[in-house]
Amino acid sequence: MIPGHQLNVVDTVKSGKVNIHILDKPFDWPRQQIKAIAKVDIPRRLSIMRNHTATHLVHAALRKVLGTHVHQAGSLVAPEHLRFDFAHFSKISEQKLAEIENIVNEKITDNIQLQHWRNIPFEEAQKMGALMFFGDKYGDKVNVVQFSDFSKEFCGGTHVKNTGEIGYFKIRSEASSASGVRRIEAITYDYALEYLKIQNNTYKELVEHGYQLIDDIQSLQKDIIRLSSGTSALSKEETLNLDIELRKMEQISEAPTAIVTAKLSVEFSELHQRSRKLEDYVLMLAEKKKSFEKELAKYNLKSASSDIEALIVKATSINGFKLVTSKVTAADMDTLKSIGDTLRSKIGSGVGILSSIIDDKVALVCVVSDDLIKTKNIQAGKIVGAIAKIVGGGGGGKPHLATAGGKDVAKLDEALGSVAAVVEGMM
Asked: Is pLDDT above 60 for 401?
């Protein structure tokens, strides 16, 4: 980031001792020196961390199921997927693939903590029994990454703090990549969950799902444009290209019927390639939708936070401190909590209850200033728990901030109206 502009770094190259950053678009740099702030694209980095860590688990699972002759012969770690090449002499059966997949997901569920040794002598790392990755060059000092006694390897990359952050692991394909080398392609986290939703869909269902995602994206775009003074994360040209690509897929959506009738293996192969392309496209749309939802949540948070001052002005008074109760717009509970944090930082001495309807359910957050916790023993967890009962739910948390949910949206006004009595009952 530089004053007034945000530019994306798409690559880096080294020239002597200088690292050069390659930007995604031309920029007319001023003659004088200016200060630039470099920030990591956190969602992208997290996706890479999940997929990179998953390659370690896959390597260990392959060795456990197929034998210790298996060793890495190359890999690709991208935000969207991972690819792992390994030495093996034959095609892997569906049963073995399912076993490998299950082992990886078991290790994810085990929530294994990362153990990371940095800059240790190469010989010491070897004595630890760490596996070395194919093609990597090692110096006198190396890094070792370990997840319990399941996986221990030389690696200088970026990883999640525990395997649970990977979420879910799904193998998409297994094939030959060279003589004596097999290749597994897989996905994790949101990509894997979305893939499970679409995996058994027909071509026509995939196309319909794609169109629905585009409709959702365009709707989110309108909200973002409204909240961001005309800027948008996706240009009109990009939106048009999404629609054009999907229409190409729609043209072949009737292909399965013709192919089943003809029963030609070459056409089955073509259908498989088209299916993979369409699945990839729908996964891309789903990820694009998520990025728009995050973008919209950011603007909603900014808009709601700017209204906090007005809420405080309208606050009622109880025994000398402020009481704020209000409905706000929030995309998810994290956003609602962030608005609650803002309210707590500005309320001075007081109690705040904010509510929102998220996924057709009531979401509540309660905040209490430090002085009321100390002098009057008023606790956010107890307040929000009592109010949540009215909307058919429950919740709790810390004395200064707590959350709750409920399914009875019709009783939200009644719940908010009871806050004053609940607070007074605690004093």
From this structure: yes
Question: How many other CB atoms are found less than 10 A from the CB of residue 158?
Answer: 13
More confident residue, 319 or 215: 319
The residue to which tokens 């961001």 are assigned: 228
Beta sheet of 151-154, edge-to-edge order: 114-121, 141-147, 151-154
CB neighbours of 279 closer than 8 A, spacing ≥ 6? Answer: 195, 198, 199, 206
Among 293, 283, 286, CA closest to 220: 293
Cα torsion 282, 286, 291, 295 to 10°: value is 120
Length of the chain: 427
Tell me the one-letter amino acid at 224: I
Q: Output the CA–CA distances (angstroms, integers) from residue 310 to 228, 331, 343, in the order listed.
A: 21, 21, 11
Q: How far apart are CA 57 and CA 415, in angstroms?
A: 48
Q: Spell 30-68 as b/e; 16+ CB within 10 A means b.
A: eeeeeeeeeeeeeeeebbbbbbbbbbbbbbbbbbebbee
- CA-atom Rg of the chain in angstroms: 27
Question: What does the H/E/C string look like for 191-225?
Answer: HHHHHHHHCCCCHHHHHHHHHHHHHHHHHHHHHHH
- The pair phi, psi for residue 171, each rounded to 5°, is -80, 130
When pLDDT is averaged across residues 279-298 and rounded to a whole number, the result is: 72
